[in-house]
UniProtKB/TrEMBL annotation, chain A:
GO molecular function terms listed in the Swiss-Prot or TrEMBL record: DNA binding
Organism: Allobacillus halotolerans
Keywords: DNA-binding
Domain HTH LytTR-type: 212-318
A Pfam family the protein falls into: LytTR
Xref: SMART domains: LytTR (SM00850)
Lineage: Bacteria, Bacillati, Bacillota, Bacilli, Bacillales
Domain of life: Bacteria
PROSITE patterns xref list: HTH_LYTTR
Protein's UniProt name: LytTR family transcriptional regulator DNA-binding domain-containing protein
TrEMBL record, chain B:
Domain ABC-2 type transporter transmembrane: 50-221
Protein name per the record: ABC transporter permease
Membrane-topology annotation of the record: Multi-pass membrane protein
Main localization (coarse): membrane
Originating organism: Allobacillus halotolerans
Keyword DNA repair: no
One Pfam family here: ABC2_membrane_3
Amino acid sequence: MSDYTLNYEAAKDEKLPSVSLDLNESITTAIYSDTDLQAELIEAILREGKMSVFDRQEGLYDRLTVADNTKFFHKWFGCSMTFPEILVMFGLQTCADKPLSKCTPSELARVYYAKYFMMDHYPVVFHEPIQGVDLHTMNTFMNMLQKLKENKTPVLILVSNLEHALLLSDLTYKLKENGLQEIEVAQEQLSETTTETEQNSATLTTSKLYKVPAKVEDKIILFDPTEIDYIESQDGKAQIVVNHESFSLDSTLAEIEKKIEPYGFYRCHRSYIVNLQKVREIITWSKNTYSLRIDNKPKSTIPLSRTKIQHIQDTFDLK
Amino acid sequence: MNTQRIGAIFEKDLKEFRKNMMLLMMPVIPIFLAFMYSRMGEGELPIFLLYLIVGATYSAVTTSGMMTMMAEENEKKTLRGLIQSPASLADILIGKSLVVGLFTLVSLIISLAILGNDTFLAVQPIIGLILLFLFFLLLGIGIGLFTKSVANTSAYIMPVMFLFGFTPMIEFLNLGEDSIAIKIADYFPIMQMIDMHETNSWTAIGIVAIWVIAAAIFTFICLKKVSTDN
């Protein structure tokens, strides 16, 4: 097993804490943090000079077509896969003859992925890889991660969006000023939550008039359950998300879950409760993972645990 | 050196050159000049006019083409991740030189054909022209490594064009025969070529070769500086 270790000592005048992390080649690792800490982490990685960070910030050849760009990188990096294979793998065959200046951001993102894949670095660090791309492109990226895993390349993904981190990685860490924390995922919690749900059915009649209280500065805002898109867990506290805004609650996710379940909410992931009324799409990614797309303005996608898909399918009478 | 990489960059830049109006207009300039001169004078054209066209071709196509291509890569940061070692930088420079060389050759042959002069079809002038090409190419590479944007290139190309490309024009400035400027200008590569053409002397070729070596040293220093900067 040839793991790669990431190791940074905390510098005096910086916020970045000491980071020590094993990158396993068979597990995709993600670090989720706010953008400031992320920038400092990237700086630390670049300063060491052993790894380059793929952030889609460098230019491509705008005048040339997708095929010309890809062909150039294919030849330059001496890729062992054939050129048509690469085109198909990154879904570029349909836009192959388009000049890059006319491509959509998602198509451009796929050209970048193809370039990064052919660069064949060890290990690979991605920075916000699926920010602002469409579903097809996200799927392409996840297929590439799968391929990198087969090639035994350790992958690290840096994101500032928890949903992306949970979707892409097998192991998610949260980077805060006091250090790295692992975010545990599903499974072990499952039995606990199912017992909770059984109890909840009893309280159904009593909670007819329930509003969710959120504190904003000095005021307490009462939310109608139907206007809530979903509730996520942030540092042990629940947070309501309504369109672009989020409001913190005083209670934990488990506490709020009990109260809100009768209104058509469901704990679809350890850190998420979703308003089932607002689910527009159930996305099935190729590697047997799932996401729920919410029918709100930013069209949020939130993770759906593998163990909970059955319940969702039953709820919506799907097979 | 890696022929596969040189091939890749050659192919890529050849396609880019054809789609870039700014680069594509450059080889047209000397052809247009040649066309005008051939209409202007009756009979044989003076030698210095021929070399003016050669100077225009080399400075407008070779030097400026090389500079523009490098500037574009620097400006858009397209080379990030492609250059892992000084060897891959060399591959890029060689690949681009081949593209520039190809377009220079085409432009030069067409403009000289328009002028209808075959005095260049001899061993000595051809050696001279090759040396001149190398001189202008090395100059373009050296400056190109440092140009951060395409807009900058037009500022940098001016001195090169007037000093080295259009040196024969200095005679029109009506400076006296003994003027120090003329004496210095006489040692510039294009002037030495004119001298060689008239006297068939090999020393003129030697002086051009010294210019090439000087340009090579300049380029080498630039390369060293760029690779230590990163």
